[in-house]
Each structure stands twice: as C-alpha cells, then as structure tokens.
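Render this sequence as a predicted structure.
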Amino acid sequence: MRILATYLRRESAKTVAVIFAVLFLITLGTLFADTLRAIARGALPSSMLLTELGLRTASVLTILFPLSLFLGVLSHLSGMYRNQEAVMYHAFGLGVGQFLRFLMPMALAFAGFMLVLSLWVVPWASRQSDMLAQAARKEVSVLGLKEGEFQTLGDDEAVIYIEKIDAENNRFQRVFLARQTPGVVDVLTASYGYQFEDETSHQRYLALFDGHRSEGRAGQLRYQRLHFDRADVRLPRLQGRSFSVEEDGKTVRELLASSDLKDRTELHWRLVPAISVLVLVALAVALARTSPREGKYGNIMIGLLAYVAYVNFLALGRALLEQGKLPMWLGLWWVHLAFLGFALWRIWKLDGELGPFRARVLASC
C-alpha cells in the first residue's frame, strides 16, 4: 500500500511540475511585457526591470501553484483510467477515496507553502516593490515621453508634443500641450521646460518657461492669450505596477487589528490559496474517472469549467464581503465547503458504484 501511495504521489508531482513550468513561462512572458510597458511609460526606470519582475512573480505564484496542482492530479489520474491502470487498483480493493488519502500528504505540503507565500511573502514583496518604485522615481526623468511625436497624458485628457528631449539634463525644447475640460480648451506652448517632483506629495509636474497660453470655450471666438515666464502643469499619476499597497502590503497583524471591511476581506482572501489547494485536489480526484472510449480531454475540459466556477464564486464572495452584504464570520468558507462537499459526495458515490465491481473481480480470482 505504501509503494502504491509513493508511486501515485511521485508521478502526480512530475505532471504537476511540467504543467507548472509551462504556465509559469507563459505568465512570466506576460509580466515581462507588462513591466516593459511600465518602463516605456516612465513608471519605472530600466534598472528596476529584473527586480520588479521578481517581486511581481511572487503574487502570481499564489494562482499558478493551485491551478498546476489541480490540472496535474486531474491529468495524471485521467491517464491512469484510460490506461486501465486505475481499474487494476480498484480490482485490488482500492477505491477512489483511497486515491485522495494517498494524495493528501502532498496537498497538505502545498497548502502549507501557499499559506506562507500568501500571508507573508506576497505582502512583503508588495511593500518592497512600492518602496523601490518610490525611490527610483527620480531616475525617471522624462516620463517615457518621445520627441517628435504627439502623445496623450492620462486618460486622453491632454496631448503633448516635444520637439527635442535632452534626457541627461532633463530638459525639453519647444513644448506644445493641449488640454480639454468640459467646454474649455487650454493650449500651452513653451520654449523649453523640465520635469520635477514635489517632495511632499510625490506628485510630478512639468515646468514650462517662456511661453504662451491660449484658453477659451470650444465653438466661440473669444479666447484669452497670455504670456508667461513659468507655468507648472501637474502630470497624471502613472499606474505601472500590479500591487495595491494599501491592502496587499499590510501585514497580518495590521489586518487583524483593522475594522475596515476591505482589510477584513483581504485577510479572508489571503487564506484562499492554501485552502483552495485542498479543495482542488479533492475536486481533481472526483472528476478524474473516465472511460477508455471517452474523449481524451473531456474530463480536463470539465475540470477547467469547475475551476473557473470555483474562482468566480470566490471573486463574487470577495465583492459581497467588501460591500458588507455577507457576514464577515461567513467569509469565503461557504464557497470552499460547497465545492469540497460536491467533491466528497462524488467520491463517495463512485466508491459505491465500484463496490460490486471489486466484489466480482475478487470472486473471479
């Protein structure tokens, strides 16, 4: 029995490792492209590429590990059923529930790792990413702007054109800036300018010198034209990172001491990766049984649909908790218990169906 349990865990772990490697490479490519876009927009300096990529990867692991474990166990057990290997185990008296017991030590180890990752490592990475980004803001001198091109700032609220950029001296030559608010058009032209950051608010500004400002209402001929020696224009805040330090970066002690709904919900959400590992392993065992005559990837598709439903219900539960429509003591446990109950019920039903089969096989021997 111990040999069978070791074999099942070892082969399942191999499949999990392969699936995780594929998913990790795909996700890493997406994170790399997203980080490059943040650098191009000026949200991060190029020197922080690898650091930011590593810190953001920690958050992604809380999603990839449970999903890889689920798909790995489901894929391996489905292959055992198609190859008649699982049928042989059932003939020796091993039920579907026994498969789950064999896989529980591996699932518990994954759950413990997920608990450490989501409760301590990811919040630490979030805080580190925020501190590094704030410390490196001064290195981003030109906000990702390009010379000789019209570019939008913020949510298409303004258009800027810079004839020439001297990145080493943080200096712009011949600047055109057009902003439009409801009913008002504001156009600024300047001979030169530079970018600076307010030390108190950490807000970025564009200082323009020796220019003109034209302001008026669209569709009317009455415009005001002013000459200025210097005009400071507030630049939009850049969103170049995936972390929300207000919640994701808080420690467990801070979340426990807080009475805010979002903080309490965040605490429940951090427990999701560890608990989902146990639920998904049980769900994979329950959905793995297949017939050699059935489609090769039929139960894989069913498993993916079950995973999507599980994740969507968790997201729904989080939104309801943040809105105060669910009691905090209930948390997200109702989602976990519902899917775990379904998995255990199906395993119990499958073992009931296998009882007469095992009896006939043993009698024939």
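Summary. The chain is about 60% helix and 20% strand. The first strand starts at residue 150 and ends at 153.
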